[in-house]
Design goal:
The protein is mainly β. The chain contains 3 helices and 12 strands; from the N terminus they run βαβββαββαββββββ.
């Protein structure tokens, strides 16, 4: 699950106020000029708060998840938002074969982690956010190294451009619209 925010601090506070759990530092994505914080949601599942990294050099390409779009900037002016999700695949090349929407497979690495993602050349979310971003992990999955948060993703829905997720927490069920 991807929560976007103007700053990591703002996004982390927003998630903590809704789910009652603290996020841990993630890292930087120099290719995209972003950074993140993470919340483990169980084995091989996590939520990340993503923000443009003010200390990063401008990327050579549009940032992922529409982060450079005026519409996303306007949305985030109102506060952090659950904007997208990623789905794992074991064959990212096969999954995007024949795609006509301008996806390219981009390789990333940070520390012990290696992954590839299918990202639109113009930085848009697939089909305006109606479809997930595909990711293939070529290393261990980072959720295994995240501390236990007491939060689990139970379900999520995507309707008419709006994403909502339900989580079980130590304080009961919580929803992020």
């Amino acid at each position: 699950m991807v929560v976007a925010a103007r700053t990591l601090d703002e996004g982390a506070a927003w998630v903590q106020s809704r789910l009652g759990a603290s996020l841990v530092p993630g890292g930087k994505h120099p290719t995209m000029g972003t950074h993140n914080r993470l919340l483990g949601l169980g084995p091989r599942t996590y939520l990340e708060v993503m923000a443009i990294d003010p200390d990063a050099a401008p990327p050579q390409r549009p940032r992922w998840f529409d982060l450079d779009s005026p519409a996303m900037a306007a949305l985030l002016e109102r506060g952090p938002a659950l904007i997208h999700w990623a789905e794992r695949t074991g064959d990212i090349e096969g999954a995007v074969r024949g795609d006509s929407t301008g996806l390219e497979i981009v390789a990333f690495s940070r520390g012990p982690y290696r992954w590839r993602m299918a990202i639109a050349r113009d930085g848009r979310r697939p089909e305006g956010g109606a479809k997930p971003t595909l990711i293939q992990w070529d290393s261990d999955h980072p959720a295994a190294a995240l501390p236990e948060s007491g939060v689990r993703l139970e379900r999520f829905t995507h309707e008419n451009g709006a994403l909502a997720a339900a989580f079980s927490t130590t304080a009961g069920m919580r929803t992020i619209p």
